[in-house]
Design brief:
Blueprint lengths: L12 H13 L12 E6 L5 H12 L3 E5 L1 H4 L3 E2 L12 E2 H11 L2 E5 L7 H5 L2 H10 L3 E3 L7 H14 L6 E6 L9 H12 L3 E5 L8 H4 L3 E3 L2 H5 L4 E5 L21 H4 L6 E3 L12 H4 L6 H21 L2
Parallel strand pairs: 1-2, 1-5, 3-4, 5-6, 7-8, 7-10, 8-9, 10-11
Helix pairs in contact: 1-7, 1-13, 2-13, 4-6, 7-8, 7-13
The structure holds phosphoric acid mono(formamide)ester (CP).
The site of phosphoric acid mono(formamide)ester has 9 residues, from helix 2.
Length: about 325
């Protein structure tokens, strides 16, 4: 693998899941691969899980790790080509990315969408500038439209915890007070559409995702109907794709509760975290026996380790 920006960079998702589970069994088996190799993790936005799990994965592989919170610790970045930099920006991404590529063997970048201009976000303007100019293999730590390390960890979790060969997986929209990106649901949908699962998406009307990411999914607007017989429920908020980045009010009753679980096949409840309790997901679910959110977050290490190993092998 030369880069990891989406499921399309993966030749065989089942083989990658198997590899991740082998890392979980034996975390230090490939320490030699990362010897004298360095990964740089560059964050334009906050992170807990992605930062720590990717760091841990790299250390397990024997790599050196450097982290830069470029939004807080770096020079103010200019992203527009041709800009006359007589305002607040100090360094162009062309130089910043290229210089970072001089110091590391692999680079990870997190770059959220602005949620103002759909075309700009969906062209991955910021992330692709790093791809173009860094000169080393790149791994997405979540871009404007996708979060593939999260989705791989989600697939690993489903593979580990499923009790039937082809489980029913439901992506269920949840309420939130702020407009959130579509990156996690887009990415989860892309991975589930390639996995051996029955995949259903449920959301209120108006929260349709870009169909490029959901091809093959069944979309049901009635949440109770969608949840019937579910083995896994993936809870996630996202803002509208059309009108872009907007919150459509009036769907607070979409928060998952134990009562809603009754129509499922004792479904396991997933969430990428961070989660706003009693807004997106109830205490009773998060603290109850059906929640697997901590297990899922733990699997972020093995997802990252499987990906970094393949990137190291391509150097
Ligand atoms: N799920 C996830 O990516 O968490 P962080 O934003 O904390 O990295």
């Amino acid at each position: 693998m030369k880069q990891f920006t989406s499921v399309h960079d993966v030749t065989d998702i089942n083989a990658l899941v198997s590899e991740a589970l082998q890392h979980k069994e034996n975390p230090y088996a490939h320490q030699h691969l990362g010897k004298n190799k360095t990964i740089g993790l560059v964050f334009l936005n906050p992170s807990l899980r992605t930062r720590m799990s990717t760091q841990k994965a790299a250390l397990n592989l024997g790599m050196n790790v450097m982290v830069l919170n470029i939004d807080k610790e770096g020079w103010a970045l200019e992203l527009q080509d041709g800009a006359v930099m007589n305002g607040t920006t100090v360094e162009h991404v062309r130089e910043a990315a290229a210089v970072l590529g001089q110091y590391v063997d692999i680079i990870g970048v997190r770059s959220f969408p602005g949620l103002q201009d759909r075309e700009e976000d969906y062209s991955e303007q910021v992330f692709n500038k790093f791809v173009e100019h860094c000169g080393v293999p790149i791994v997405s730590l979540e871009s404007a439209t996708r979060h593939p390390l999260q989705s791989l960890a989600d697939l690993i979790t489903i593979e580990e915890l499923k009790t039937k060969a082809r489980p029913k997986v439901v992506l269920s929209w949840a309420p939130h007070i702020k407009p959130l990106p579509q990156a996690v649901p887009n990415s989860f949908a892309e991975w589930m559409c390639k996995a051996d699962v029955e995949f259903v998406i449920t959301h209120p009307e108006g929260y349709e995702l870009n169909t490029n990411y959901t091809l093959g999914a069944t979309i049901i607007h009635n949440q109770d109907k969608a949840l019937q017989g579910a083995d896994f429920i993936y809870v996630k908020n996202w803002s509208a794709y059309e009108p872009y980045g907007k919150v459509i009010k009036g769907f607070d009753d979409w928060m998952l509760t134990n009562e809603k679980l009754q129509v499922t096949d004792n479904a396991k409840v997933m969430h990428c975290l961070p989660v706003r309790r009693n807004l997106e997901l109830s205490d009773e679910i998060l603290d109850g026996p059906n929640s697997v959110v901590i297990h899922e977050a733990g699997n972020r290490v093995w997802a990252a380790q499987a990906v970094l190993k393949q990137l190291l092998e391509s150097l």
